[in-house]
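User: Here's a chain of 229 residues. Predict its fold as tokens.
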Amino acid sequence: MAKLLIAEDDPEIAMLERDYLELEGYEVTVVDNGQQAVTETLNGSYALILLDLMLPGCNGCDVCRLIRDRIDVPILMVTARTESADKIRGLGLGADDYIPKPFDPAELVARVKSHLSRYARLTGGGQAEPEVIDLGTIRILPQSLKVMKGGQELKMPNREFALLKFLAEHPNVVFSKEKLFETIWGYEYVGDSATVTVHIGRIRDKVEDDPAHPKLIETVWGAGYRLNR
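Assistant: Prediction complete.
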């Protein structure tokens, strides 16, 4: 069964999360500060991270920033802070979901299962690698989950990869933010289309020669986004 890491400084909440997840058969480790979270994440082999925003020593956003480019597993922010700015910042740093406190433990378990299942589908294999999706200087290798630019591999977390791949598989088609959200995150994800905007921005920072004036992924005002091929 998958190994999960909980980074939470409130012992009652941490034990509640741990108990419910262990009942589902997961192996759970709990840490109570940000530095421990970074160390444990980088030294362990965890399938998913539950990360409180307000951790002592190193807050959840800093932890997410430090680990996201070095690991590619689902990161779920669990926090009492629900302001839009905090949510967008966490997603912008690479978090996959945002769960506000207080939460229903059964819902938290369901969200964990959903992210693990979706990540397994994104990274699953067994088939011969399909043709490379060639976008000029950008090349997408779907089976190995790699994105190359000018011969250099780009760090692309699973949601960013899935979003770019989907757009590349449907070139010159305009998709609304709502459609992209539904396709990549699914109905079970509690969030909104602002998540798509954040991820598109992160992808552009990596693939565009001039992210301020994108040519590959174009914004069609009032309609959504289109990948030009």
